[in-house]
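Translate structure to sequence.
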């Protein structure tokens, strides 16, 4: 879809969602506070993705890698160069992507993995037009290795790809139901926020996503919905326009 047309159509938010980017943090792949990949969590993610794909909605999934490591933290712990540590973080996302690929396939969903770092023997490299072609054919595309460059996160990668492939919305799946005024686990007075503007997120430094990711979405008119992937059916409900999580838009 040409960019201008895509932007104009996004503004009519009541229209049917056709293409989504789903960002899943690494923590979605493991049990709370745990490390690595948990089979049940993996299956739950795959089932949610399939429930949306079955509606005829095109789904590109950007996976994080925090269930294995995060670059900035590991650089300090191991006294290695930060750039190297970020590359290690990107490779961690590839592990999640390959696991999700096989679970989706096991459940009958056609899928491809495209990586921003070339790993020829394990998956395709990210090629924008090819990614869109897969989506049009009803395949789920899992995007691994973030942006392929260090010092940023997979949130930024998700925003970039949402803009690049003209997604109607960016879904940020977390393990809380949306955005609160404070951390609800630490502050019982924390209030849930149903709607936010991009500026509120940036100005109030709400820790929803990287500022660069929110800024990109704002500049290109991509709305963001933050919701919990822990509740079954949430993603399908969000696609169907039900009031799920926190909606961030202009
Ligand atoms: N990373 C990076 N460039 C990218 C995306 C990710 O260097 O474009 C590295 C970074 O070190 C990050 C790690 O990969 O900490 C894992 O990604 P992220 O923190 O976004 O995972 P999540 O928190 O979503 O699980």
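Result:
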């Amino acid at each position: 879809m040409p960019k201008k047309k895509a932007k104009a159509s996004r503004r009519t938010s009541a229209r049917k969602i056709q293409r989504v980017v789903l960002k899943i943090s690494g923590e979605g792949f493991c049990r709370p506070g745990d490390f690595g990949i948990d089979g049940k969590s993996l299956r739950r993610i795959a089932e949610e993705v399939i429930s949306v794909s079955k509606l005829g909605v095109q789904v590109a999934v950007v996976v994080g890698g925090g269930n294995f490591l995060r670059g900035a933290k590991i650089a300090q712990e191991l006294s290695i160069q930060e750039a190297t540590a970020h590359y290690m973080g990107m490779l961690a996302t590839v592990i999640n992507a390959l696991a999700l690929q096989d679970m989706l396939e096991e459940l009958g969903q056609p899928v491809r993995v495209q990586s921003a770092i070339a790993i020829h023997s394990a998956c395709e490299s990210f090629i924008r037009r090819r990614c869109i072609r897969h989506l049009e054919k009803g395949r789920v595309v899992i995007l691994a290795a973030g942006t392929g460059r260090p010092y940023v996160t997979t949130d930024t990668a998700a925003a970039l790809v949402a803009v690049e492939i003209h997604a109607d919305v960016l879904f940020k799946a977390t393990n809380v139901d949306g955005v609160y005024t404070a951390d609800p686990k630490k502050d019982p007075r924390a209030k849930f926020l149903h709607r936010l503007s991009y500026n509120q997120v940036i100005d109030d430094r709400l820790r929803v996503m990287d500022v660069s990711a929110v800024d990109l979405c704002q500049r290109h008119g991509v709305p963001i919905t933050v919701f919990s992937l822990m509740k079954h059916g949430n993603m399908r409900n969000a696609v169907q326009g039900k009031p799920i999580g926190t909606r961030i838009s202009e």
